Amino acid sequence: MRLPLSIPVSGLAMLAFLVGCASEAGRTPGATSFGAAQHNNAIAQSAALRQAGYVEEERARFMAAAPDTVYFAFNRAALAPPARAALAAQAAWLIAHPDVRVRISGHADLIGGERYNQGLGLTRARAAARVLIDRGVAPGRIDAVESEGENAPIVPSETPERLNRRAVTEITGLMRGYVGDGLDGERANLMYGRYASDTVEPPASANTTTVSASGGG
């Protein structure tokens, strides 16, 4: 059968291309080209889930080994002996587990102005961070030193409440380049994905109000 002379040259080129690419029905696509993106995504998601599970386990171990919270006197950021002992236990655990990162948040009572309590919370968080660093925890392992001020009370009361005057140390993740601990499967599966984001939580720079004699929680 002759092709009509009216078919343009470009049309003939396209026809030849389609014929060359044709394959029989039911052909299995090549493993190197079909589904590669989905396969890679599944691997990445699996690694992320495993890492998230490991972080949760480390949080539980940390809280079993050391108090994650230290408390302060009313309108004070000085660390009493029990608070220093708790931070010493935190530092010892963190040094023994060098692959975890933490965040320290400071809190205040619902007494006094909001801006004042933000500053007081930050001062408390910094006091806790200084003890950890003095005890040998690398500063680069502390993602953030921040203040919640009066925004996250345990006891929502406008009277002095010790439970509200606190600094909390929380495990936030793993250091980059972490590989498994050798107890979670075959060697081929030990390498975990690196953290997906390079973002580091900044300190609460707006919460730097100097604690004054006017008082707060």
UniProtKB/TrEMBL annotation:
<keyword id="KW-0732">Signal</keyword>
<dbReference type="InterPro" id="IPR050330">
    <property type="entry name" value="Bact_OuterMem_StrucFunc"/>
</dbReference>
<dbReference type="Pfam" id="PF00691">
    <property type="entry name" value="OmpA"/>
</dbReference>
<dbReference type="InterPro" id="IPR036737">
    <property type="entry name" value="OmpA-like_sf"/>
</dbReference>
<keyword id="KW-0472">Membrane</keyword>
<feature type="compositionally biased region" description="Polar residues">
    <location>
        <begin position="205"/>
        <end position="217"/>
    </location>
</feature>
<feature type="signal peptide">
    <location>
        <begin position="1"/>
        <end position="24"/>
    </location>
</feature>
<keyword id="KW-0998">Cell outer membrane</keyword>
<protein>
    <submittedName>
        <fullName>OmpA family protein</fullName>
    </submittedName>
</protein>
<feature type="domain" description="OmpA-like">
    <location>
        <begin position="59"/>
        <end position="175"/>
    </location>
</feature>
<dbReference type="InterPro" id="IPR006665">
    <property type="entry name" value="OmpA-like"/>
</dbReference>
<feature type="region of interest" description="Disordered">
    <location>
        <begin position="198"/>
        <end position="217"/>
    </location>
</feature>
<dbReference type="GO" id="GO:0009279">
    <property type="term" value="C:cell outer membrane"/>
</dbReference>
<dbReference type="InterPro" id="IPR006664">
    <property type="entry name" value="OMP_bac"/>
</dbReference>
